[in-house]
Amino acid sequence: MTTPLWRSREPKSSYDVIVVGAGGHGLATAYYLAREHGITDVAVLERGWLAGGNMARNTTIIRSNYLWGASAGIYEHALRLWEGLEEDLGQSVLFSQRGVLNLAHTTHDERESVRRVNANRLNGIDAEWLTPEEVKKLVPIIDISPELRYPVLGATFQPRAGVAKHDYVAWALASGADRLGVHLVENCEVTGFTRNGDTITGVETTRGPISAGRVALSAAGHTSVLTETLGLRLPVQSHPLQALVSEVMEPVIDTVVMSNTVHVYVHQADKGELVLGAGIDAYNGYSQRGSPATIENQVAAAVALYPVFGHAHTLRTWGGVVDVSPDASPIIGLTPFNGLYLNCGWGTGGFKATPGAGHVFADTIANDRPHPLAEPYSLDRFRTGALVDEHGAAAVAH
Ligand SMILES: Cc1cc2nc3c(=O)[nH]c(=O)nc-3n(C[C@H](O)[C@H](O)[C@H](O)COP(=O)(O)OP(=O)(O)OC[C@H]3O[C@@H](n4cnc5c(N)ncnc54)[C@H](O)[C@@H]3O)c2cc1C
């Protein structure tokens, strides 16, 4: 008989820590709570199935080349953890540092990109500016002719960036957490909180109330739905975000190429499918499906930039729900309620942060104060105005 990677548990009536949401962030948080802080009386409550949210719907791009120092801190922390994750968890997650390019198509793009390369270097992050010819050398299938609708004026390049296999990551984190004694509870939706004044004492769930010393929310877009039950409004909007894969093709591209202006990005999965992502749908929603027009624009742009894709057939498209904050940066930290912690607002780019977010969030929960890397991401910044505006680096999804 094969041994399952993790056990789906019945919930107990009480835990030291409850983590809401078994996406990558919730699982990583539980894993690091147990491994780094010795807090093992932990349950991860998931309303559906483990990693059935954005975790298994994303396009797996990992990079740390955001603009601001705060972002360099958290995303680079995550990238360093990715670099040791397989060894740490004892399982393959197909982490592949194949490099990520961000194309510039306009003079404005070019200036912004060069500024970002310089900022990245000052923050100790590997970053290069490539000419169109250098781009062509790395990505021979790209069209760099100047008469193109979206001429390639150059690109930023982060060689240490890349991809990992999202479901393997979830399973490896779940397995690691389970081995350390964490309870993973599926089909258990959190519907509200129990409280004593301003102190949270547990959660109400579809499987009954469960008490907890601390409650940590990692429920992506549904985090704001949950805090609304406490009268706490979060500045987070949920939007559909779509992606697609082609039929299996021969190897044609061995790096990741993104394009802010035309809202398309591409890499090739190990088994040969082209993985293409788009920008977010403009409207708000929780339906995990987006509009066909977005996919159409994305495919048209991809075929213009990479004419060989004209031969590929779309195998499937899908959508997730991304939780976008006003400055395109996450919210991590304490809340006005004792014992309630937030990790949300990762928008279109939270997969890359998975180990880093979990690591920093676990530390924040264990010590009841923000981890130094989480400090700039407090909820309070929307009151003080100390925003971490990453719209430039997050303009195309990821
Ligand atoms: C199409 C697409 C492509 C993307 N591509 C990339 C990419 O290439 N790179 C990148 O870095 N990021 C990417 N992202 C973003 C990334 O997927 C997310 O930012 C990241 O997965 C968020 O992780 P999470 O654990 O917070 O959320 P999720 O994985 O969504 O986990 C939240 C979990 O909470 C559960 N939940 C919700 N409400 C409740 C409740 N009341 N009770 C119990 N459980 C609840 C949900 O079911 C879900 O499983 C992409 C997203 C999409 C949709």
Automatic annotation (TrEMBL):
SUPFAM superfamilies: FAD-linked reductases, C-terminal domain, FAD/NAD(P)-binding domain. InterPro entries: FAD-dep_OxRdtase (IPR006076), FAD/NAD-bd_sf (IPR036188), Rhodanese-like_dom (IPR001763), SoxB (IPR006278). GO terms for cellular component: cytoplasm. It catalyses: sarcosine + O2 + H2O = formaldehyde + glycine + H2O2; sarcosine + (6S)-5,6,7,8-tetrahydrofolate + O2 = (6R)-5,10-methylene-5,6,7,8-tetrahydrofolate + glycine + H2O2. Transmembrane segments: none annotated. It comes from the Bacteria. Its EC number is 1.5.3.24. It is found in: Cytoplasm. GO terms for biological process: tetrahydrofolate metabolic process. It is an enzyme of class 1 (oxidoreductase). One of its GO terms (molecular function) is nucleotide binding. Its cofactor is FMN; FAD. Belongs to the SoxB family. This is Sarcosine oxidase subunit beta. It comes from Haloactinospora alba.
